[in-house]
Backbone:
């Protein structure tokens, strides 16, 4: 659900198969569908944000990754900052649903500034999504 006082983002991204995208975003992530142009694109509501899967197989491919905490984090990714309980519930739902975790749920910077839970999943077209939560929202940009 969205907060009307906070701007919402819009993100368009490439997919190699619209039905596979529908299964991942509409099914596994339970994002309600919006408009679509069959064979071209599908809108999804990602927790109040509009994301659009565009059929563009030539744009899909392997992601470049950087080392972060000894893990390979894809440079190109998108996702959400969530409430801690919502983050835990989503992680459990995705585990149960058979999500392909690129990075399993874990807590970074435990006991330090910026303590956060994070995990990465990958969609059928190779797009990486990060879902994270901070123990304290005041620490989101803490150094």
Residues:
């Amino acid at each position: 659900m969205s907060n009307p006082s906070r701007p919402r983002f819009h993100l368009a991204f490439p997919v190699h198969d619209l039905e596979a995208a529908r299964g991942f975003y509409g099914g596994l992530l339970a994002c309600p569908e919006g408009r679509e142009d069959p064979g071209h694109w599908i809108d999804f509501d990602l927790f109040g944000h509009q994301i659009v899967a565009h059929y563009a197989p030539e744009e899909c491919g392997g992601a470049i990754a950087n080392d972060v905490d000894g893990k390979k984090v894809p440079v190109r990714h998108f996702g959400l900052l969530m409430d801690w309980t919502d983050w835990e519930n989503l992680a459990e739902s995705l585990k149960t649903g058979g999500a392909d975790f690129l990075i399993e749920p874990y807590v970074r910077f435990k006991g330090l500034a910026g303590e956060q839970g994070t995990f990465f999943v990958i969609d059928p077209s190779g797009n990486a999504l990060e879902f994270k939560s901070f123990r304290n929202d005041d620490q989101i940009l803490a150094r």
Summary: Strands lie at 10-15, 33-37, 41-46, 49-55, 65-68, 71-74, 77-81, 101-108, 116-122, 128-134. The chain has two domains: 10-59, 65-139.
